[in-house]
Amino acid sequence: MSTEKSNSSILEKTLQVGGFLVILGSTWMLHADNKKQIEKMSTLVKKYETQLDVAIAQDPDVHKRYAKNLRKALNDLTPQERQVLLAIYQIDKE
User: Which residue, of 20, 21, 29, 85, is most buried by count of CB atoms within 10 Å of its CB?
Assistant: First the structure.
């Protein structure tokens, strides 16, 4: 009886570990797939940001409106938010 109980316990633990490994493997595969999708989206966003920047720079009216809206947005920020945003902009320029 104790041998059956011992074998049953070993089988249960083996199944638990196996189940855990399946879940871990599935999670890792999903993570890797999500990472690939994020990289694709990031590349796409960068491409469209570049296209938008070129379009804004080429049209003087759009550029003026964009600059005006940007100044409005900056004025709506708290002093701390504005300081952080300007610091990020300064780093990005370097």
Answer: 85
